[in-house]
Design a protein that fits this description.
Elements: H1 2-8, H2 47-50, H3 56-66, E1 83-90, E2 92-93, E3 96-97, E4 100-105, E5 114-119, E6 123-128, H4 139-146, E7 147-152, E8 158-164, E9 169-174, E10 178-183, E11 188-194, E12 200-205, E13 212-217, E14 222-226, E15 230-236, E16 239-243, E17 246-248, H5 255-258, E18 270-275, E19 281-286, E20 292-296, E21 305-307, E22 324-329, E23 335-340, E24 344-349, E25 359-362, E26 373-375, E27 381-384, E28 391-395, E29 404-406, E30 413-418, E31 425-430, E32 434-440, H6 463-479, H7 481-490, H8 504-511, H9 515-520, H10 524-527, H11 546-551
Parallel strand pairs: 11-16
Antiparallel strand pairs: 1-32, 2-3, 4-5, 5-6, 6-7, 8-9, 9-10, 10-11, 12-13, 13-14, 14-17, 15-16, 18-19, 19-20, 20-21, 22-23, 23-24, 24-25, 26-27, 27-28, 28-29, 30-31, 31-32
Helix pairs in contact: 6-7
Length: 553
């Protein structure tokens, strides 16, 4: 749109509109008598709690050995996934509507109903997605009911937002070439990240340490930041300025651009960045082509590897000249999606990047870099905006099935998001100045679990360990009957343990051999032959990052 092209130019500015910094007044006739209050947010977690969770590959190893439970989700047999619109709100300030650019649900369960929306005017608005919005009322009336608060965060467009610190803080990336850190409760800027020379287009925080983040800019660079490294010598009024800890310039250049000294900014723009779940790798994508590059944050001199949809053939070079508008990953970091300007969304397996995309999804129209796509937290579905005014949802396990089409918007659908805690809730925004919330219709779902909802390797417990567990359950029963019942449910018993499997000869040998001793005397050579050795090799062969996987390939 003409609005968007205006904000793409470097240093562009708009007129700052005055707004109240207090919560909505109940005296206004268009607002309810008891306006919603913003719930108290937790303080930033300590560094010890941030580092408590294990790494991505440790999680995989644990799953391979012990199995894992996943949240039960609806399983759709042969029918399409259906969504019902729950309501819409207008993105407006003082009666003037403006196109939204980014939306994001809070990340913690207690605040997951709060939806943040940024727009071209530089406002940041918070809405309560649980509010019941009647279709009989106007959009402005619904906005008054659902809006929690708003404030001017930048004097320019805000292209991306990111919740951190248990939703107590939020980061905003703007066309004024800066990133700002906000205290949500007080609506106060507590830090400004300076260093880019173009509009900041994308943000991504570290999976376990919210003080670390990566940003991508229209100037062709991506930067790493540490919110603890404050530049005390440089302050902007009362705001603390923070400088980047590392920056890679000209990260995505076409072959033609590398042969000339100066190129157009649009051909070098970084459109999306991701901090991967292994905690040291990042992925970047640009406007020049459909290549996704992977970097090791400990050594940014060169990329670790790169992937693209097309095979490396000189006859198909023309086909990769489509930029990528967005990247996303599921909550476990196993899958990565790339929304490409060739009207396709490519799905990659992070541990099998050398194989290229494992699947592609079509049906939407991606005609601008404002159209985004997001994979669901459980990696079961992909949600995307579209230039034709619709939103689309694909089921990952059924790529051959036509996507579900969400109709209702009257303009290009741009940013989309999945609610991380409320199953089936999504949000979409469009150039029609509205944000819509949708819920999956449970009437189409089966009561049974998906065949892939539980993945478990069947393993037999040694007899001695089994006897200890049974003995422990008996002691638990004698002390507290109620707790013993729960204990009986969670711990395996002699009836629930599968009997040893094997030939009669192997079972006879098992009777005269203590399995505990065999475990204690396991050597690295024998461990390498076990099914879990790929994910749990000896310490000398451990591979913890994407770089290690490709160096040993």
């Amino acid at each position: 749109s003409s609005h968007k092209s205006h904000f793409e130019s470097r240093g562009s500015s708009i007129k700052l509109q005055k707004t109240s910094t207090s919560f909505l007044s109940p005296s206004s006739s268009s607002f309810p008598q008891s306006p919603p209050s913003f719930p108290p947010l937790m303080e930033a977690p300590s560094s010890s709690s941030r580092c408590r969770s294990g790494s991505f590959f440790q999680d995989i190893r644990s799953r391979e050995l012990n199995g894992f439970r996943v949240r039960k989700r609806p399983y759709y047999e042969d029918s399409k996934l259906q969504f019902a619109e729950m309501g819409e709100v207008a993105v407006e300030h003082n009666g003037d509507e403006t196109p939204p650019l980014a939306i994001s649900f809070c990340k913690t369960a207690k605040n997951a109903h709060i939806l943040a929306v940024s727009d071209e005017e530089g406002y940041l608005s918070l809405f309560d997605s649980r509010r019941k919005l009647s279709s009989a009322t106007t959009r402005l009336e619904n906005t008054g009911k659902a809006r929690i608060t708003e404030w001017v965060a930048h004097q320019n467009a805000i292209f991306d937002i990111r919740w951190i610190k248990d939703d107590a803080r939020i980061l905003t990336a703007s066309g004024d070439q800066s990133i700002q850190l906000w205290d949500v409760q007080g609506k106060k800027c507590i830090g400004v990240l300076l260093g880019h020379t173009g509009s900041v287009k994308s943000l991504s925080s570290h999976p376990t340490n919210s003080d670390l983040l990566v940003s991508g800019s229209r100037d062709g660079s991506f930067a790493l930041w540490d919110l603890r490294c404050q530049n005390t010598s440089t302050r902007r009024s009362t705001e603390t300025c923070i400088s980047s800890t590392a920056m890679v310039k000209r990260a995505h250049l076409s072959a033609q651009a590398k042969r000339v000294r100066r190129t157009k900014t649009a051909s070098t723009s970084i459109t999306s960045v991701l901090y991967l779940k292994d905690e040291v790798s990042i992925a970047t994508a640009g406007a020049v082509d459909s290549i996704v590059k992977f970097w090791d944050t400990r050594n940014l001199k060169s990329q670790v590897t790169q992937v693209s949809p097309q095979p490396k053939s000189s006859t198909e070079k023309v086909n990769i000249m489509h930029g990528i508008s967005s990247l996303s990953q599921d909550s476990n970091g196993m899958f990565l999606t790339a929304s490409c300007m060739d009207n396709r969304i490519y799905l990659y397996n992070v541990l099998q990047l050398q194989k290229g995309p494992v699947q592609s999804f079509t049906g939407c129209q991606i005609e601008s870099f404002f159209v985004k796509s997001v994979i669901s937290p459980d990696a079961s579905s992909i949600l995307s905006g579209s230039s034709d005014g619709n939103a689309y949802v694909w089921q990952v396990e059924r790529p051959q099935m036509d996507p579900t089409v969400l109709k209702g918007h009257d303009g290009e659908v741009t940013a989309v998001d999945w609610c991380p805690s409320e199953e089936g809730k999504i949000a979409t925004c469009a150039d029609d100045f509205t944000v819509r919330v949708w819920n999956a219709e449970t009437s189409y779902s089966s009561s049974s679990r998906s065949p892939t909802s539980i993945r478990r390797r069947i393993m037999n417990l040694p007899s001695r360990e089994q006897r200890q567990l049974n003995l422990g359950s008996e002691e638990k029963d004698s002390s507290d009957p109620e707790e013993a019942m729960n204990h009986h449910i969670t711990l395996p018993t002699s009836e629930s343990i599968m009997p040893p499997m094997g030939t009669p000869e192997a079972q006879k040998k098992r009777l005269h051999h203590d399995p505990i001793e065999s475990v204690e005397t396991t050597t690295p050579e024998s461990a390498m032959k076990s099914p879990s050795s790929v994910l749990n090799p000896p310490s000398s062969l451990k591979r913890k990052t994407i770089r290690d996987y490709f160096l040993t390939a």
